[in-house]
């Protein structure tokens, strides 16, 4: 939760009633953040006088917003020892995570404490009417289980575009019709509730910013890796939706390595074809990575194979170095500063740039830095990169003798001795994002490691496009697949990204994973409810 905002007079003294409302809201925000407080603690934190604090405590108690929840101090008696807290059941909230394959719901009190939660699968062959009824019925049962009389606010996270003018879910091809019908049905069945809807990836980013892996950042990008792909963009602390609400539709991004180009109505041929759940599961099959039989299909299968590969890599790393669960590669630094990690285990890593002597990083180096111009490809023996200044596009991972040129930028050449023919982009240019070097110093390396390297190459393609335009400084890998990959996959993506971009960018796993959507929907609902209940009157 953001810190309490102190109202500033635009040019004239506040009326007594407005001043009281502002003080009340400030106190409520503090109670939200800090938990129960005594009147003395409220005085200290707000800077208000003792009589003013006494008055606001009385007003908030009479209005039913706060109550005595206990006593503080060694003696625990007397009016000064009373602890005041927000009345949690003053309002009840619901949050929904709407997916193509089902719905999850949580019902909470005004403080966000979970009172009930439930989910229901909805098959592809379910009609629109029955699907809507299943989802609405799930919410009604959860509300009843929570013991709530009614809902104040409902927050919904769903895939697709949100119209920035109306706040409504737009009709999107490829998404079930019941998604759009659900919002109207909930409003009809819950007439006293305020129903809000937001793109699922945007809500996950909100949750990561408040409670997850971006709490220390006001600019970052969340790359969502679920059944499909998406991205949320937060710049200078604000979520950016774009003119039509479509910021982050990265599944439509044209990338090399696909069979064609995406269209206005179908993201097949775009980044989705490389990083969607189905594509990841197919890539795992090519590398012989198999998840447990309980992994299921679709999204669960993709997350399952990634989790299995990470477990395999972690086991191998632990055998080689006790206590290690991922390769902590040395940092690479070039023009513009540090540019992320380079996987250890790259013997004879040679990097050269204009005005800098060539250096070699031993395979067992504990973390020396390597300077670069266009980037260093991770974990590849005999890699040599040359360039001057800022090489555009860097080095394409896995492309033997691939040369990258850009107008106004230096040209770099890299040789990675990758096996097999490179795939063709739509324009015929050769790229290889999935291949591994045949002269691997560890020829018996397990398929899990090679699969993760290939997947990291694919993810880096999408991330590099975002980084080149936005320079976010940090990219989070979210969704169920990002959660399954954890730090092991994130480190590989960061190393590949540093090879393609001169812009220093950290890649981190999200802290909330697939649960971020539901948590973000709850935060949205809670913010809206508190803004209404705690708001001072307009002047």
TrEMBL record:
<dbReference type="InterPro" id="IPR000600">
    <property type="entry name" value="ROK"/>
</dbReference>
<dbReference type="Pfam" id="PF00480">
    <property type="entry name" value="ROK"/>
</dbReference>
<dbReference type="InterPro" id="IPR036390">
    <property type="entry name" value="WH_DNA-bd_sf"/>
</dbReference>
<protein>
    <recommendedName>
        <fullName>HTH marR-type domain-containing protein</fullName>
    </recommendedName>
</protein>
<dbReference type="InterPro" id="IPR036388">
    <property type="entry name" value="WH-like_DNA-bd_sf"/>
</dbReference>
<dbReference type="InterPro" id="IPR011991">
    <property type="entry name" value="ArsR-like_HTH"/>
</dbReference>
<dbReference type="InterPro" id="IPR000835">
    <property type="entry name" value="HTH_MarR-typ"/>
</dbReference>
<feature type="compositionally biased region" description="Gly residues">
    <location>
        <begin position="334"/>
        <end position="343"/>
    </location>
</feature>
<comment type="similarity">
    <text>Belongs to the ROK (NagC/XylR) family.</text>
</comment>
<feature type="compositionally biased region" description="Gly residues">
    <location>
        <begin position="387"/>
        <end position="396"/>
    </location>
</feature>
<feature type="region of interest" description="Disordered">
    <location>
        <begin position="319"/>
        <end position="447"/>
    </location>
</feature>
<feature type="domain" description="HTH marR-type">
    <location>
        <begin position="27"/>
        <end position="77"/>
    </location>
</feature>
<dbReference type="Pfam" id="PF12802">
    <property type="entry name" value="MarR_2"/>
</dbReference>
<dbReference type="InterPro" id="IPR043129">
    <property type="entry name" value="ATPase_NBD"/>
</dbReference>
